[in-house]
Amino acid sequence: MSATKPAGRYRWTILSLVFFATTINYLDRQVISLLKDDYLEPLFNWTESDYANIVIVFQLTYALGMIGVGRVIDKIGTKLGYAFSLIVWSVAAVGHALATSTIGFMVARGFLGVSESGNFPAAIKTVAEWFPKKERAFATGLFNSGSNIGAIIAPLTVPLIAVYMGWQWAFIITGAIGFIWLIFWFKIYETPSKHKKLSREEYDYIHSDAEEASQEAGPENKMNWMKLLTFRQTWAFVVGKFLTDPIWWFYLFWLPSFLNKQYGMTKTDYALPIAIVYTMTTFGSIFGGWLSGYFINKGWEVYKARRTAMLFFALLVLPVVFAQALGQHSYWYAVLIIGLAASAHQAWSANIFTTTSDMFPKKAVASVTGIGGMAGALGGILIAKAAGVLLDHYKALGAIETGYYIMFLICGSAYLTAWIIFNLLAPKMKRVEI
Predict the structure, then answer these.
(1) Choice between 258 and 309, residue whose per-residue pLDDT is larger
(2) What is the phi-psi region of residue 429: left when phi exceeds 0, alpha when psi lies from -120 to 50, beta otherwise?
(3) CATH superfamily, region 10-425
(4) Residues 135-185: tens digit of each pLDDT
(5) Residue 38 CA to chain centroid, in angstroms?
(6) What is the Cα–Cα distance from 79 to 4, expressed in whole angstroms?
(7) Which terminus of the chain, N or C, has less C-beta within 10 A?
(8) 223: pLDDT confidence band, cut at 50, 70 and 90?
(9) What residue segments make up the domains of the chain, in order of their start?
(10) How crowded is residue 269: how many other Cβ atoms within 10 Å of its Cβ?
């Protein structure tokens, strides 16, 4: 069969649904960081450690959700698994408006964390089901850019809603958007083998990877974590996520506060800089996915293409160490360098996510993604606690910028460390047979 000119493009319609779900996912989780300084911190007398603890509750429940969510999605299928996850997280997002204490926010963040954990296992499984290998990183980069769009929309809308309608309505309106998505999901989505609008030519193109076709045709063995944890490939993905996911969490939850504490910006001042950072990450996510696909189309082995792209983006993160030094001349230097590092993270993420479907059969992809997601969330807990302790310590000394400098050192070194370990554990990303 020819795999060069697919007759249809329906797979991109499916990808658009995943893109919008990811956009909603990040919109809902970022609202609290935008309301922290001007509304929630003075209203509930939060310290930096209080806020860190609220962030940790989200990350802990996100990690706990990852323990089983990938396996559940592999078992019940992407359609029902994705829908159930989004229903619960939308209700939880709206539920923040009912919080009347710090504990109340912890409860709401807990429900949000455990339910939002379903997004990426379901999304990566959808890409594995609907795209051949050479397009998966690009497809992942595209849907993952939805996280950046959510992060752009949030600072441009949430403060305005809070000003004109109250902070509670910021949670209610953003949380309710997920229910609109569900209508399109149930109407449009189905697996390729069951979809009536998918042409035979496009179906053959999607399933054009010969080594996958032979494995997927085998019996549906039960996925189990203990078995998956015996593979070095699993640990390569787990370590990569554990070391690099926390950096994205740090940018997501502390960037508004950094701009406020370092440069005295208010919510209206930092809306544009944050939007610019996440606009940069949108391009980074898409370019990151495109780059390894470009190498594959040039005839490179898949492992070499992914490894080279990931090294390139790990190196692009390094300048974030100098963000504050250059920011002394103009805060825009700091914004742009953080934007470069964040966009390099998303480019890295597009590639490391795709390694799960490179190394594992489709029936195990959501499970492996869940394991790695749990590791990333646990790393996020550690960095949130470290950030809270460091920033409170140096804030008390009147030198909070030193705390941020240490955090940027951690951010700058994480990716090269992860790249080295990943390639020691899975140098050629050999495909696992289950």
Answers:
(1) 309
(2) left
(3) MFS general substrate transporter like domains (1.20.1250.20)
(4) 999 999 999 888 878 877 888 899 899 999 999 999 999 999 999 999 999
(5) 26
(6) 29
(7) N
(8) low
(9) 10-425
(10) 13
Give the type of residue at 380: G
Structure tokens given for 408: 């940027």
Nearest to 135 by CA among 311, 293, 335, 342: 293
Side-chain half-sphere exposure of 292, counting CA atoms within 13 A = 37
Structure tokens at 263: 């440069």
Give the C-alpha distances (Å, rounded to integers) separating 79 from 103, 123, 188, 189, 250. 34, 10, 10, 7, 31
Nearest 5°: the CA angle 21, 415, 224 is 60
- Cα angle: 72, vertex 363, 78; to 5 degrees: 50
Q: Lowest mean pLDDT: which of 5-19, 48-62, 212-226, 353-367? A: 212-226
424 exposed, middle or buried (CB, 10 Å; 0-12, 13-18, 19+)? exposed
Do 319 and 343 meet the contact criterion of CB atoms below 8 Å apart? no
Question: Bigger pLDDT: 377 or 204?
Answer: 204
Residues 396-409: pLDDT tens digits?
888 788 888 899 99
Contact 106, 87 (CB under 8 A): no
Q: How far apart are CA 385 and CA 382, in angstroms?
A: 5
Taking each continuous run of H as one helix and of E as one strand, the counts in the chain are 18, 0
